[in-house]
Design brief:
Oligomer: homotetramer
Largest sheet of chain A: 5 strands, antiparallel
Strand content of chain A: 15-25%
Largest interface: A-B, 108 and 107 residues
Distance between the termini of chain A: 23 Å
Radius of gyration of chain A: 21 Å
Strand order of the largest sheet of chain A: 1-2-3-7-4
Helix content of chain A: 10-25%
Chain lengths: 355, 355, 355, 355
Amino acid sequence: MSSTWGEKVKISVFGESHGNGIGVVIDGLPSGFKIDRERLLVQVGRRAPGGDLTSTPRKESDLPKIMSGVLNGVTTGAPLCAVIKNTNTRSGDYANLMTCPRPGHSDYTAFVKYNGFNDISGGGHFSGRLTAPLVFAGGICRQILEEKGIKIGGHISEIAGIRDKSFDPVNIDSQLIDRLSSEKFPLIDKSVEEKMRNAVEEARLDLDSVGGIVECAVIGLPAGLGGPMFGGVEGLIASAIFGVPAVKGIEFGKGFGLAQMRGSQSNDPFEYSDGRVVTKTNNCGGILGGITNAMPVVFRACIKPTPSIAKEQDTVDLQKKCNAKLSVQGRHDPCIVPRAVSVIEACTAVALMNL
Amino acid sequence: MSSTWGEKVKISVFGESHGNGIGVVIDGLPSGFKIDRERLLVQVGRRAPGGDLTSTPRKESDLPKIMSGVLNGVTTGAPLCAVIKNTNTRSGDYANLMTCPRPGHSDYTAFVKYNGFNDISGGGHFSGRLTAPLVFAGGICRQILEEKGIKIGGHISEIAGIRDKSFDPVNIDSQLIDRLSSEKFPLIDKSVEEKMRNAVEEARLDLDSVGGIVECAVIGLPAGLGGPMFGGVEGLIASAIFGVPAVKGIEFGKGFGLAQMRGSQSNDPFEYSDGRVVTKTNNCGGILGGITNAMPVVFRACIKPTPSIAKEQDTVDLQKKCNAKLSVQGRHDPCIVPRAVSVIEACTAVALMNL
Amino acid sequence: MSSTWGEKVKISVFGESHGNGIGVVIDGLPSGFKIDRERLLVQVGRRAPGGDLTSTPRKESDLPKIMSGVLNGVTTGAPLCAVIKNTNTRSGDYANLMTCPRPGHSDYTAFVKYNGFNDISGGGHFSGRLTAPLVFAGGICRQILEEKGIKIGGHISEIAGIRDKSFDPVNIDSQLIDRLSSEKFPLIDKSVEEKMRNAVEEARLDLDSVGGIVECAVIGLPAGLGGPMFGGVEGLIASAIFGVPAVKGIEFGKGFGLAQMRGSQSNDPFEYSDGRVVTKTNNCGGILGGITNAMPVVFRACIKPTPSIAKEQDTVDLQKKCNAKLSVQGRHDPCIVPRAVSVIEACTAVALMNL
Amino acid sequence: MSSTWGEKVKISVFGESHGNGIGVVIDGLPSGFKIDRERLLVQVGRRAPGGDLTSTPRKESDLPKIMSGVLNGVTTGAPLCAVIKNTNTRSGDYANLMTCPRPGHSDYTAFVKYNGFNDISGGGHFSGRLTAPLVFAGGICRQILEEKGIKIGGHISEIAGIRDKSFDPVNIDSQLIDRLSSEKFPLIDKSVEEKMRNAVEEARLDLDSVGGIVECAVIGLPAGLGGPMFGGVEGLIASAIFGVPAVKGIEFGKGFGLAQMRGSQSNDPFEYSDGRVVTKTNNCGGILGGITNAMPVVFRACIKPTPSIAKEQDTVDLQKKCNAKLSVQGRHDPCIVPRAVSVIEACTAVALMNL
């Protein structure tokens, strides 16, 4: 029951949506790494809402303050703590809000787990706001990885049934990764953007929301990382990615598509290319026996539709112990998939620091 | 890089396919639990090959010997170690086998990771045989869970594109779980069995193999287990399930299907039923905010086709550093999905002991 | 290489002496616990310097700000983060200070470990200031433990060779624990206070420092906590206590004195007392086979003399690569033993939360 | 509550004194290491009883059988499991033995913890026999460390008040370490051996037992290993050493002696010697700020007298709930200190593999 993750590089995320602040402690970073603040801000900005019809019009400053672990912009090797103050803290008593749990949210389950003592305003510790420190932590980790030639980039694979092209998993260009990992609405095929945005807008006008899929790739990993069984790269990445709220599934390589293939199709044949062992296809997503094979690691994660919708829904009244109706107030993202890309990339970066 | 898993109940799996033996240490079991040996053998038998056209005709005795942690059939609270001796150990020098890695296998990646010192005969530590101790460990854990009213059962959701019915996720009968969790070829709708077997047989005659999907359900879990972010039940189960060789994806509830739903459809409305809070649908798979909501936990895991196929495949010769051809010798399961059901149930049981 | 500790309750300490701030994240606290702020301040105050000749005259505000995990004074169950801002941050470039490492300090070893990138001003992450968040975290944990009847109290067992009485380990009064655990200079026998203070003052006038021993007791623990081998209570407490800078040894019960005893003396005979099993002596310090026996847990930890002394010492100049002389500037505690009592109690409290 | 230890190299010890077997799983060993079986047997033999008046005349074969992780004498990188079969298993029903717990033993505390379901015959999982797999695991780890120039050796510092010389902590000869780490009764000054043996024999004739102290040194460690706070080398070693039954205290360098020193004495002055930074004294035991300084790491651990004595002792009868008398039957070591040296060296080796 923990917001702490990792063995070699541990991150410990804290905060509640309307508390005094949110943040992260990153323990185990190497010393002597010069953090590129500009590039960190690009990542933080990708996750931040605003400037875009697909995300919420609230203004929010996600600029974190580094409390420790950095001296003159360079990591000291001590735990790095970064804090984002909430300007938007609780006012008044929210206790009576907790009568009608929002469907699709953690309201009810957190109520049971914490005996009603959890902070429910704005979702508390379960708020999507908590992904801001994750993106910050991942933003540092990805810079360290890039120095070793390892790059991470994702795109919106699908929103509301509208699909982007997929990565060509045997041949992912470094420039494509660079482009995707700096955009707020990253797509391989930009021609689908308008359709996706229209679908999101349509849902918004219906007081509803939509889900989607993020596809993420890692290039530059050497062969031989990971291990058998519970030490496998799939399990490592999955346990980090399921830390992202709203993720309900993950598949590597062809994933669920493998169920309909034969071994002669799904097995990736080896061949020599420029003296290196490569595979002709990459159905395994760059991982065999839990260990990287130096091909791109490719996975897809599905994101459920934003549960906060203005449309009236059935729920219960926990005080009166009867059925009830609920319309979630406030302005909420009708689609969090574009913002989720940066969060998933970030969690992948943190995960890979543990290899 | 570890074959050890868990916090409260730790399992440590060891062994190589053709070494002296394989086994597991289970640390953290409660004392005073009377193990039902007959029911344990049912589970071990479900995973064991033989007696069935879908699995390999090799004879193998998977009867484990308990070395410690049990006195007169009752757990002592000390670590339980169980060992299965290999009757079928290495003979001769296999070193020269390692020239041509089998596509879809860990041969190449393990070779890189272990600098060629890994035991490759029969797949070594990466062999599917290593799932035997997992099923044994899970078999004990599930008995302990059942005493608390928690039951785990899975079925073959799909083989070679042929589909069984899905669980009705709001209403999973205890008797259905009992039936599925004792069968070697568990199906909700037995009428698809023949089609599935035919598809497997067809692949076998083609010197090929097929993959599939396992759907697994847990009933009887109380609400409030799990936690936010990295403490979520999805991440916990996923990290255990990806420990099973050949699993390449996992989805909870509607999973990837959520990508095409709207929030108003995917949110599970709450209602009172007999004084208990339930949900009318169960698209979230029994988990909200990483925490159980007392509805059945339902997930699906995809299993890639058996990589060992007799059909000729392209590979490389690592000694001569050139491309090569390979036909995998020996008799191999053309489809491991039926056996995988018991392994996935077992890993789920071990995972749930950590809640 | 980690400032994170614990399994069930994890603490993650961050900060550097002259950075932006120091603090702690505590993950795994129960929800619904009302924190007694006054009693927390007593603990924080015991560790804080000032008001006492044995400690440094610097003014320092150790009042932490709670960022998360607490709502209206009650724990929410989410990670609790508390931050103490540094008012006294770095000014100027300290890089050239790192030429002559202070004997007895981490200066040299941290320089090697972090390749010179660590923050050395004020000791950086190795500063005794980092014990402030520990005392804060322990202060909350001890309140939770006290609700279960478990109390922790320590005293200055020895300073500069001058000894306080020892606990009577079979009979430790709750009122004694209450008194000791609220005092800044806790002694069982207050008549030795003056002698101890004089010894400290003498050292100070000599531009020197003194060490000592802290004895700590825990009462109210039930029998049966802990476990064999690496799960033992001794190892658990020791690994937490060695997290306190300057601790170089720990012994439980008679500890090193056992070396000169015979089994017939050291074995603690059992007897019934008021229907409960107790021991007539308590040479084992309340722990047998790594497991509590319901007698008081008693241990002693030694504290080395403050390494920062004004007296000239031999050292090296790492730039010029030659031997050098050094007098440590600034005002430093000539004896940290009194303040260490509260830190050791705090770490014990955190450790016991993991049982 | 765990017999599992370690992060990078995990050991998982299992078995009960009179069960089917005892053993260990070592996960995380490097691949390609050729195990020197002869030298491993030397270590196993040092711990084994027999051939010596100070230890028990029971015959016991501690030759472990390697089940996995080794191929042709070379580590494969997969988990290494080694099993020692018990030839001396339970016969009859020992249940009624558990009425009168032996003073100084885990009988009572294990009874409470495991609700009476633990295996008590021969001490069960708490038996000193469980140190055999520890010595085996440590024996492999020390060979790997030696290849990196790191050597571990201990000696009997004290038995029954009779003292051996101490290490000169600034100058520990590799040959001395080699000699000590191969002897069954290792002493720096062999002239005290007879006195020690006489004291042990005297205790034996008195139906009693004696305790002692082991001093252990590690040479060849580079500077910069370990970390601040809970990542310190002292805490790491201590948590491993307290896994050894009968250890009740540990001190590094001057340890408790530091309490009576001044800072000007206890601080170890740095100086250049042959271009390397060394310290003139080594009161800190080679560790500053939790990090190695390349001087020898030196620590002492105290061992309580063997609790099993033939002399009549007071105890309780847990069935009749009254006081009782007990003489422990069977032949027991009157002094386990000589055998403990090899166990402490072994645990140190395992601990250092985690740096």
